[in-house]
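Margin note from the TA: students keep mixing up input and output lines. Inputs are the sequences; the output is the structure of the whole complex. Example:
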Amino acid sequence: MNDKTLLNVKSTRRQVLGGAAVAAGVAAAGTFVPTRFAIGAQANVKIGFLLPYSGTYAALGHNITDAFKMRVAELGNKLAGRGVEYVMLDSEAAPPKAKDNTARLILKDKCDVLVGPVHSGVAMAMAQVARDEGTLTIVANAGADNITREMCAPNIFRSSFSNWQSTYPCGSVMLKDGIKDAVTITWNYPAGKQMMQGFKDSFLPGGGKIVKEILIDFPSVEFQAHLTEIAALKPGAVFTFFAGGGALKFINDYAAAGLQGKIPLYGAGFLTDGVYQKAGAAANGIKTTLHYSDALDTPKNRAFRQNFESNAKRPADVYAVQGYDAAEMLRVGLEATKGDLGAQDKVVAAIEKATIESPRGNFTISKAHNPVQDIYLREIVNGEEKVLGVAHKALADPATGCKMA
Amino acid sequence: MRAGPIGMDFSYYLIQILNGVQYGFLLFLVASGLTLIFGIMGIINLAHGSFYMVGAYLAYWLTGVTGNLFYAILLGVPISVVLGLLIERFGITFLYKRDHLYQVLFTYGLILVFNEMRSVLWGNDVHGVPVPDLLSGAIPLTETQSYPVYRLFISLVCVALAACLYLVIQRTRLGMTIRAGASNREMVQSLGIDISRLFAVVFGLGAALAAFAGMIAAPVSSVYPGMGEHVLIISFVVVVIGGVGSIKGAFIGAMLIGLTHTFGAVFVPQAASMAVYAVMALVLLWRPQGLFGKA
């Protein structure tokens, strides 16, 4: 999902935001008498965000951060009685810098907990360092299957999704819609291939047939030749994953080539999230699966969206939900030990046992530390996103290769 | 149902040729400005893609303000010419006599500045630009596929512009000095032609061409951060294939790349981009100065 090129290099910036939080924490320490590690508990919980604050993914990084802080603010700016301090480090969505950045948050800034990142490449490097250092880490977006599969670790959690999880239910959905064969089209990179695999894992065993799998060089957005090919192949449907500018262009090109309405378009939810509003009528009829929908009509989601919008002055999205839930997972873990992060096994056990009340609906955490969550089927109808229902109830990632599962 | 492109019928390939030519026209618009600046002024302008991006964002912004892409282009082109002239006057001017490395560093810095300005002015979101109502139709080609009128319109505009460029460069006094400047700068200077004004004109023209390409492409390409760098690299390929400084070369190079990319996508989808570079390598092996470059 990275549109940045090697030409897009920026300086790293670090922001320590915590004047108020430090003051609040010191004040709190006077009234709170910890049961264990008296000295340790007096300090604030230091949370390091390794998220993109510049470049293509900046909006995602800010939404995750702001929603995380919003949840902590709802709890009186405390987690299990301890004050909270934030270190924000721009990941620049640059995998080569991820190891150094993670080490810096852990060793130099002495962060107790890490939250991040958006980019899967950054997440893999970050997870490696965090696993070696043993720092509690919550991945708030990156969907790389590996993080909660072969790379899984006791101290690493995910509050978002696995790529596989987001598309697996769509195969069954399409079969139910009477579709017998499909063309898949995505970028030739890990996220794209993992999402296609999820789809195939339900579509093929159900009797579906893949006419052709098209993989396009990342991040090329020249789709015209492939659309002509799809038009000639006339499959029952097209299943796709693109994101950001590529998604918008694909949706527009698909409609402009006259395929909209003739060959149904299905995809991972990221195809339309934050995109369909800009695509207008071209997005109508696209069906996608994802663990969240802006249009979920539950009291919890309505309240969350209202709060976020009045705090951040912009609408909430799936990334904000994932940030919000990362804070909630951390709260559950810390409260089990009254704020003591030293007893990490107890923190981990508490999160594993918890049912997280999320704007997306309640979810639990698998043994591999990935959410076990409902995947929704959504459709763009007349320029609005509609939730058609739950495509798969309480779906768990297979966690293939994870020693904890 | 057919198994793959091999068994596809004749019309299928005709449509793919159309796709390739159409992509080539768009590449030509960006690459022509780049080759002018590179060939005549000897400036490696890495920020050329940024002008493309600025054009696209101007189209998005001004279409929102005026309600019509055509008005947006009418307003946007002068803005980008002025922008180009300002950058030439206050930046590039000092680099003519310097090594290419300075130019690369400076124009690379410009990319960062442009990206940050874009982020400040328009944010980091992706945007769509509506196709003007007049051109929003589509021509059915097969029972499943139709061709958007707007894409054909882009091709027509590119042909018209290519013809204009050709006439200006081959048939006018300005074109004569530009060609002279490309082949022998000192001689032109010693003949009493104000070379600095000529360079300003060329840079402004080049910037405007790139920005115009961004504007006219905005409805089909969408508008997103990083679009400039993407187009820059492929434009350099076109320029190098065609021969630095040659408009004709840029045209042929753009067509070659457009068709290579399209048919690469048809036959070897995983390696479509690589096919483009393979063609470049072959051309350079055969003619190291490019198809129409001066040896």
